[in-house]
Every structure is written in C-alpha cells, then in structure tokens.
Write a structure and sequence with these properties.
It is built from three helices and seven strands, in the order αββββαβαββ. With 135 residues, it is an alpha/beta fold. It has a domain of 85 residues: Nucleotidyltransferase, domain 5, CATH 3.30.420. Strands 4-3-2-5-6 form a five-stranded mixed β-sheet, covered by helices on one side. Strand 2 and strand 3 form a beta hairpin. The N and C termini lie far apart (86 Å).
C-alpha cells in the first residue's frame, strides 16, 4: 500500500476568537479610562448639598486656582478670553456652558467670567459643584 502525500493547504477561515478577545479588552480599557480623561485639570470645585450629576454635553469653562482660564482644556490668556469664547460659541446657540471654578478663586473672577459669558449670549449656564460626601 502506497501513501499519497497531499499538499498542505491553509484553511481559508479567519480565527475570530482572538479578534473578539482583543476588542473586548480594549473596550473595557476605554470604558475605565474615559471618565478619568474628562476632568484632567486639577480644579477643586466647592461642595454643595444639592449638587447632582449630569450627562449633558457642552462647552466647559475652567478657572484654575491661579486664575488661569481654559475653554474645553485649552488654555486661554485672560485678556483674550472673551474673543476666544466668541469663536467657540455661536450666538443664539442652545448649547449649554458649564463653569468649573476652583474653590479658592476669588468671587470677583467668577463673576467677571459669568459676565463675559452672558455678554456672549449664553442662556444655559451651569455652575459645577461636587456633592457633599459624608464623613
């Protein structure tokens, strides 16, 4: 009896198992990392008893401890803040604006920024606070 050798032929199917495993691991990593990326600036907002979480998307204005202004994580010189904000925000837009100010920032600075935002036509302005945590 003679044995015949058949030529090697690769199987034309793709192994999906490894692809699905890698995709699920990446999905989990991004789900864990996404909330950490949202507030990467070191700003300690004050606590409030009735603060509530929101999932609304909008323009975020940050005032750091040293008075530095940020529009959506982009540092903006204080003198050019009004011009820079008007380039980002369209008058008559219904997009909400969230103001996050460090608890050590002077009240007059927060009011100055609010005045600029209202002058630019912002109607939906939210002040960001952390809920009070029990000790």
């Amino acid at each position: 009896m003679r044995k015949f050798k058949l030529p090697y032929r690769p199987i034309p199917d793709i192994n999906i198992t490894a692809l699905v495993d890698v995709t699920l691991v990446l999905l989990i990593i991004f789900m864990v990392a996404a909330p950490m990326l949202k507030s990467s600036l070191d700003i300690e907002v004050p606590e409030a008893a009735n603060a509530r979480s929101t999932t609304d998307e909008g323009i975020e204005i940050n005032i750091a401890k040293d008075g530095t202004l940020y529009i959506d994580k982009t540092k903006v010189p204080t003198a050019q803040f009004e011009i820079a904000f008007k380039q980002v925000y369209a008058p008559g837009s219904r997009e909400p604006v969230f103001l996050r100010a460090d608890q050590n920032v002077a009240y007059r600075e927060v009011l100055r920024v609010i005045d600029i935002l209202r002058g630019a036509g912002v109607e939906d302005l939210g002040l960001v606070a952390e809920p009070i945590t029990g000790k």
